[in-house]
Design goal:
The protein is α+β, with helices and mostly antiparallel strands. 32% of the residues lie in helices and 27% in strands. It contains ten helices and 21 strands. The strands form four sheets. Strands 5, 6, 7, 14, 15, 16, 17, 18 and 19 form a nine-stranded mixed β-sheet that branches. A hairpin with a 4-residue loop joins strand 10 and strand 11. The radius of gyration is 21 Å and the shape is globular. The structure holds flavin-adenine dinucleotide. The site of flavin-adenine dinucleotide has 42 residues, from helix 1, helix 6, strand 19 and helix 10.
């Protein structure tokens, strides 16, 4: 079985390793000159415990399984992994019902060690945080997903597979017998092709003539980092109670494995698929995004929230205010702009942001169409799930 994988992010590499270890001949095709160049190398580095997700969803199941697999994998390979714990903090009494629902959902999802804390209890975990109550998830962890991706690539090589860098997939032709792929100057033939292309998902789907009712809309997540000595004010992860309508919104404080503390991310529309700043815009990408009815419906429905996020992007004081709500000792000078990332978020034709992971099988081609957070946490479990979906026989 010859398997081609598009994308050397954490997902493509986890799938490649899984398939190669099961005996397939695996080739990963990556358009960039290095692995983990996009979402995998530009995220918060949080190994999520699976608190918020809809019980029974792929996210809920694969996040929990993925976290356990990743913990074991990091231990086995000496990769960084630190259970710093996460506090979800209610800063007003009005947020208490929402906080309680989070604790209930976490228990329903089988998240271990969940505790509900009062104002004093939360300060025992995070001495500089304030709030009226919190939910504590002691096993939420941090890691370096780029380092994990590099180790997965090494495992793949040991199992006989290869990663071909600077090989953009430019053409795909599926027949009854195989899938022919043009990747940069190379022409390759596979029995199966699996796309884990993140922000490039729609281009790959179009090349494979696999239209569909979802399209990727890029949302940039911007961060500040805390300067020294303010980073000493945060031990682990401090999150707000999420708004159920916008679960990925809400600036939080995140300790990183290298000791930095991040404030963010927000979520602003990116002006290009790989639009890492306001200056990075692509007319071609914007035309494609605006042409999608789902993107226009989403904008019409959520423009107020969008404007608030854009204001937060342009005015540092909004970011500082969001962080000070949880750690009031922070001063504006403590926050320094740092590199952000762009989320590949699938949006349905009716304007709905797809919440769950989406994996689409079209004959010999498998397309991962929605793999937002916590897909890095879940990557090993998603790989196992895909391996069960794609039988290793012709
Ligand atoms: C700001 C931010 C914060 C996040 N925080 C977290 C977190 O704390 N925890 C968590 O679990 N998840 C988090 N995520 C989500 C997580 O980073 C992603 O879900 C995960 O990295 C997806 O991995 P991937 O391999 O699918 O995508 P990517 O890492 O984006 O990889 C896709 C690859 O495909 C390549 N590609 C695209 N098109 C082509 C083509 N035509 N030919 C060849 N190659 C191609 C790209 O160059 C890229 O390298 C965050 C994401 C962002 C953006």
């Amino acid at each position: 079985m010859r398997i081609g994988i598009v994308g050397a992010g954490i997902l493509g590499l986890a799938v490649a390793r899984q398939m190669a270890r099961a005996g397939a001949e695996v080739t990963v095709l990556e358009k960039e000159p290095r692995i983990a160049a996009h979402q995998t190398g530009h995220n918060s580095g949080v190994v999520h415990a699976g608190i918020y997700y809809q019980p029974g969803s792929l996210k809920a199941t694969l996040c929990r399984e993925g976290m356990a697999m990743l913990r074991e994998y990091c231990a086995e390979h000496g990769l960084p992994y630190d259970e710093v714990g996460k506090l979800v903090v209610a800063s007003t009494r009005a947020e208490l019902p929402g906080l309680h629902r989070i604790a209930e959902r976490a228990r329903e999802n089988g998240v271990p060690g969940i505790a509900e804390l009062d104002a004093i209890g939360l300060r025992e975990v995070e001495p500089h945080a304030v709030g009226v109550a919190a939910v504590h998830s002691p096993h939420t962890a941090i890691t370096d997903f780029s380092a994990v991706a590099r180790r997965l690539a090494a495992d793949l090589a040991e199992a006989g597979g290869s990663v071909r860098l600077s090989r953009p997939v430019l053409a795909i032709k599926q027949t009854a017998d195989d899938v022919a792929v043009a990747a940069g100057p190379e022409r390759l033939t596979f029995d199966r092709l699996i796309s884990c292309a993140g922000l490039g998902t729609d281009q790959v789907a179009d090349l494979a003539r696999a239209g569909g009712d979802v399209r990727i809309v890029p949302f940039r997540g911007e961060y500040y980092r805390l300067a020294d000595p303010a980073r000493g004010l945060v031990r682990g992860l401090i999150y707000p109670v999420p708004d159920p309508r916008y679960p990925f919104l809400g600036v939080h404080l995140t300790r990183r494995i290298d000791g930095e503390v991040l404030v963010g991310p927000n979520a602003v529309p990116a002006l290009a698929l790989e639009g890492y700043s306001w200056a990075s815009a692509s007319l071609r990408d914007l035309r494609r995004i605006v042409a999608w009815p789902g993107a226009r419906r989403m904008a019409a429905e959520h423009w107020r929230t969008g404007l608030r996020e854009v204001y937060g992007s342009l005015a540092k004081r909004a970011f500082v205010a969001a962080a000070r709500r949880y750690v009031p000792e922070l001063a504006p000078a403590d926050l320094v702009r740092t590199q952000g990332g762009v989320r590949a978020q699938a949006v349905a034709r009716d304007g709905r942001l797809l919440d769950d992971f989406v994996i689409d099988v079209r004959g010999r081609i498998v397309l991962v169409r929605n793999a937002p957070s916590p897909a890095a946490t879940s990557s090993l479990a998603i790989a196992r799930h895909i391996a069960l979906t794609v039988p290793l026989t012709s």
